[in-house]
Structure formats: C-alpha cells, structure tokens
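Listing S7. Sequence submitted for prediction.
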Amino acid sequence: MPKPRLSLPAGAARALFFSPLLLLIILAARPPALAQRATASTPEQKTARHFESIKAEPLELYMFLRQMPKGADLHNHMTGSVYAESYVRWAAEAGMCVDRKTMLLFNGPCDEASGRPAASTAMTDGVLYRSMIDAWSMRNSEYAGQSGHDQFFDSFGKFGLAGNNRYGDMLAEVTARAASGRVAYMELMLTPDNGKSRDLGRQLKWPDGAADASPAELAKVMEQMRQELLRLGISQAVREGQNTLNIMEARRKELLKCDDPNKAAPGCGVTVRYIFQIARANPPAQAFAQMVAAMEMALVEPRLVALNLVQAEDSLPSMTYFPLQMLMLDYLNSVYPKVNITLHAGELAPGLVPPDGLRFHVRDSVRKGHAKRIGHGVAVAYEDDPVGLLREMSEKRVMVEICLSSNDGILGVRGKQHPLPLYLKFGVPVALATDDEGVSRSEMTREFVKAVEDHGLGYVQLKAMARTSLEHAFVEGASLWKDAGRWLPVSECKSDRAGDGSPSGECQRFLKGNEKARLQWALEGSFADFEKKH
C-alpha cells in the first residue's frame, strides 16, 4: 500500500524551506569566508561580548573598566574627594595637633602627655596614623561604633582644618585620580568665596512670618534682601570666589607641571568647572546670601557653571528649611534664569526621616527648585506619585547623578533597594558619579564596577552613561548630538567618525566653537580606540 503523500500549499512550503533550523544548516555548510562575514560585528558589539565573558571575574572586570573611557564626574565634593592620607600629611606640615580620643584637629598647643600630640606624630606612630585615617573616612566604618551615615558626616569636622589653604593641592589630587580612571571632565563642588557671602547674610534678618506670606509678598521680601546684599557688597564675595579659582588652578599647574609639555601629568588634561555649594543647614538669610553670591558669580565667571545645596538632607535644619529654600530658588531663577541649578534631593531612606519626609524632595527640587540635575535621588520610589514623577523627569530630561558607593555607605541602600534600575526602566537620564571618593575610599572605576556587580549592567549601558554624563554637563557650548537618545551627531559632523582621522572642516569649526561638543568628540575617539583593543 503506497504511503500517503503530504501535500502543502506553496506558501507553507516556502515557510518551511526558510525555517530557522534549515537556515542554520545552510549557514553551517557555507564556505568559512562566507560564515565569517555572516557573524561579523561592530567594534562595540565585539567589546560588549568580551565584557560579558569577563564581567563575573572581579579582577578582570576592574582591569577592563579602569581603561574604559568614562566621560564626566558631575557630582564631586572636592574636600570630600581627597583621601585621608593627604589630610594627615597636610596637618603634619602645618604643625597642627590631634586629639587621640576624638581625632579632631586643632591649632596648638599640642600636649602628648594629655593625649593631644602633634599631628606629625602620626608619621612615625602607626597606631595614630591608622586611627586618623579610620576616623576621617569610611575605612573600617563597621567597627566605628556608629552608623555609616554618622561616620561619614562626622568625618568632615575632624579633618576640615587640614584643608585650609589647600584647594590647589586638592584640585591636583582629584584631577590626577580622575585622569588615571579615564575621566575627562569634572564639575567640582566647593565654597569659593570662603564664607564672605554667608557673613553678609548674618547682617540680614529673615522677616518673622515670611513663611506664611503669599508668593507675591515673599517675592517682594526676597527682592528687597537681594538688593540689600548688592548694597552690602556681594560683589566682594564674587571677587573672592574668582581669586580662589585663580589661586587653586595656578597651584594645580605647579604641582602637576602642566606648563611643561615634557613633564605635564595626565591630570592636566582633565577639564574642570565648578559648582558653588550652599550650606542648606544655614539659617535662611545666610543660605539666601550664598545663593545670590553664586548667581552673581555665575554671571561673570564662566568657570562657575551652577549652584547646589549640600549637607545632610535629613538634619533638622535641612528638613525644616527645605520648603523655604525651594521658594528661594524659584524666585532667584526668575531673576537669574540662565544660571544652572543641580540639587541634592532624595538622599534619604525609610527610617532616616518620617515617611512624610520622603514624599516631596525630588519633585519639589525639579518643579520649584528648577533643578536640571538631581544628586542621588535615592528616595524617588517613596515620593507621592512616583510613576508620574519618573515620567516627568524622563520627559524633561532631568538627569540623576548616581552615587552608588556613597548611597551604600551612608544610607545602607544597595542592590535591589537602589533605584538605578527604576530610573533606567523609565528612561530617566543617569550617569555615575563619585560624590566624596576620598571619604568613601572609592574612585570612578569602582563606581562602574559596583554598577555591574550590583545591577548587572552591560558594556553598552555603561557607555551610554558615560555619554550621558557629558550630554548633561554644564560645560559651555552646544552638544555634538542632535539626538542624544540614539547618539546621532549634528549635521556639521554627520559625515565624520571620531577615531577615523581628523574631522572635516565644517565639523572642525563646530567643535572649535563648542567646548561640550569637543569633549564629546574626544570621548567618541577614546571609545573607538578602546574598542579596537577588545
């Protein structure tokens, strides 16, 4: 009996012929040269595959990521980014004393017999040296007898005296470390006017009942105070700030030998801009005076690109003054609309403050504080309508400065409890940052490692973060990208490819006139070179 024949429609036969299994058989049977062409990939794809093969190996991962170009570090407190070893050395050089019990520095007289020796003693006393470093950083913080949060914030008061007149040394240290980690651009937070605007604010009195005033009445009060600050000489604070930048940059050049092409250290090549930090725990009049000084300085000093509110967000003054400070920024933004604002917001966790303290800081910083970037944003999931807020931040392209080591050490927030995946899910721009790498005992490469180990990020995601950091930097000039989401270049450079020789004349002219685009072009060239090696 003949076997029945299976009859298929012509279309079905064609579908079967081109089935995935049959296609694989055909590819396998082709000559080697054809098979190689079928599996060819871009340098980025090859690098990504190599990355996946080593991402579970900690040492190979670090080696790979240290050489990876990282773009910018946009959230960096300069005094907190210096390692404790430097502060010990500076304290010794300055003839300061240290209390063995509290580890506080002070200016003499020293008295070894009462446990208050010269700081220089630490250079020959290993126990004192180790104790000072542990007290002035997060090293061995689990044995400190207090929370990571308190260990972190308490450390600044202990070593702060050693930083007097050392801004240039600090700048040299942090830029040298940035260069070794392939960071090309930094925005450093500092108080450049050395307290002059805060002192002017002490001459003002914030009006009683101002918190209950109408928006129009409050705006009138703030304009009167701003005019009084101008009359008192806020311009002196501005000049002090500019002088500080001049002195510290000259010292950096000296230490890194930047003026000698044959001896210049790699740190000389790191482009730096500055952010004026406002002490959010200051009384209202003093904080307002600092804000005005920052705004006025940004108008005349191109190296100063933004202002930020700093200090522990959970402290009583910070929590108390937060709503008023947002109103201050809202008003000052109307007077100085071109001055950039980036704000620490949501550097909080459940239990650190009452639940209602978690529900509005990020949102108000975006809407009232006019923040173009948010620092930390750890508590975003606990805000009222977090989904709506995340969508708003995505639509407005409000970037979040992600500080993984800092959030882990200070707040105990890590892994699945950290909102980094949430921001990525909603398309909010994010970039990794170091925060206070000296106190945290970290550096940018370790932040990238932590992003991989804690969140499983791949090479392409890390590369996008590096690009995002420069896209949202406050450095002057237009962007290289007409579409930052797909990383499509502007028309002037659409026919050029970084890493493939010099750009065309039109592209060269565009890059010359736009510092941001120049940095982005250099980053693309660095990526091209990096990917050729992997």
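Caption to Listing S7: primary sequence and predicted structure tokens for the chain studied. The first helix runs from residue 10 to 17. Residues 1-29, 32-38 have pLDDT under 50 and may be disordered.
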